Amino acid sequence: MTQSFHAIVPAGGAGTRLWPLSRQGNPKFLHDLTGTGRTLIQGTLDRLAPLSDSVLVVTGEPHVDAVADQLPELPAENVLVEPSPRDSMAAIGLAAAVLTRRHPGTDVILGSFAADHVITDHAAFAAAVRTAVATAAEDYVVTIGIRATEPSTAFGYIHVGDPIATGAHQVLGFTEKPDAETAAGYLATGAYRWNAGMFVVRARVLLDHLARLQPTLAAGLEEIAAAWDTADRDAVLTRLWPTLTKIAIDHAIAEPVAAAGGVAVVPGEFDWDDVGDWRSLGRLLTTGADGVRTLGDPQDVLSLDSPGSVVAPTPGRRVVLLGVPDAVVVDTPDALLVTTRDQAQRVKDVVDRLASEGGSLI
What we know:
Helix content is 33%, strand content 27%. The protein is α/β, with parallel strands linked by helices. It has a 5-stranded mixed barrel with strand order 6-9-7-8-10, surrounded by 4 helices. It has a 4-stranded mixed sheet with strand order 12-14-16-17, covered by helices on one side. Strand 2 (54-60), helix 2 and strand 3 form a beta-alpha-beta unit. Helix 6 (203-213) crosses helix 7 and helix 6 crosses helix 9 (249-259). It is globular and about 65 Å long.
C-alpha cells in the first residue's frame, strides 16, 4: 500500500497572554512576531510543506478569510472550517477522517503541528518529523518532545522511557503543567521533555483509538467526514458539530494510549517557543543598544535606563521609557498594556476581567 504523509495545522485560540496585540478576531498566529516578514502560520507552512504530501489547516469561521489571504498557495479544500471550537481532538480527528476518505487505498500518516510556534532550525525539525513518521508506521502514536532547558511551569512534560526504535523512546506518561519544585525535579532527572503538542500517527490508528476511547465523538466525526466533500456538509455540520465531545487530544488519546504502552517520543533537538506571553516573545526579539527589545520600528521607542524591557509600539507614535527596567509596553489604537516581564503570564487575567465586563476589547 502506498504511504503518504499529511500535515494538519489546528489554527484556533486567541493567544490571550499576548493581548492587546492578539485578539479573538486577530489571534497571534496571524501576526509576524519575530520580524521575519512571515506570520506564525506562514512560518508553520514554510516548515511543513517540504515534508508533506499536503497541508490541511483547521480553523474557525472568524479566521478563514485571513488564513486564505495569508496562505494563497493552500488549496481552498485544504482549509477545514469549524463552526465553533471543540478543542484539538475534534479538529485533528476531523482532518484524519477527511484524509482517509480523500485517499482511499493509501496508508495515510498525519502529523499535527500548532499554527503559532516558532522553530528556527528547519533541518533539525525535519529530521525529527521524518523519524516520527517512520515510528508511526509501526502503529505507535508518536510525539516530538522538546529538550527542556529550564524548569518551566508553563509547559506540560513527557516522561521518556527506554528506546523502542531508531531515534524513538517509550513514553511512560504525560504530566500537566507542574509547580516549580516538581519542574526542577523533572529537569534534574534528565528523563523529561516538554510537551509541544506535536503528534504523528497513522490516520487509521488514530481513528481506531478514538472509536475505542471516545466512541460518540468518533462516530460523529466519521459521519461529518462522509458528508464533507458533498452538498450535505453544512446540514450535517449544523446537526452534529455542537454535540461533539469537547476534549484535547492529550486527554482523549495520548494519555490513555501511553498508559497501555502505545506512545513513543522522538527527541526534538531544535529551539522551540510557543510564544506564550510577552516575556517569552521578548526572548525572540533582537536587543537594541539601549537594552530594549522592540516588536516593530525601534525608531518609535525612546528608552532611558530601562534595560530588559519589551515594547510593541503603534507605528508612528513614540513610546518613551524612563527608569523602568523589565517593563512591557504594548500600544495599540484602542488599548495600552503596561506591565512587567515577571507579570506577563497574568495578562490572561486582564482578558478574563475584560470579558466579564462585556468583552469589547478582546
